[in-house]
Design brief:
Blueprint: H1 10-20, H2 25-50, H3 74-83
Length: about 80
């Protein structure tokens, strides 16, 4: 853990505290930093998945216990939803 002294905009801190539901300044700053780190990891994961071609043909036949789901349009549906 790094200890630092920094001037922080009080309005931004209060807004972040309200958004994050935190009680203290330290908790708010750490939660905000964690949120941005999580966003970066999610973006990296999405970029990695975008580089892989997924084949969902016959996905309805691939699930156990007869509970198959047709995922053949999953990628197209996700792209359509993203562009909407």
């Amino acid at each position: 853990m790094t200890r630092i002294s920094v001037d922080v905009n009080d309005e931004w801190l209060d807004a972040a505290r309200a958004e994050l539901g935190t009680d203290s300044k330290v908790e708010t700053i750490n939660a905000a930093l964690r949120e941005f780190a999580d966003r970066r990891r999610a973006r990296d994961l999405i970029e990695a998945l975008d580089e892989v071609e997924l084949d969902f043909t016959r996905s309805a036949d691939g699930w156990r216990f007869g509970g198959g789901r047709d995922l053949s349009r999953l990628e197209a549906d996700a792209r359509d939803a993203r562009s909407a």
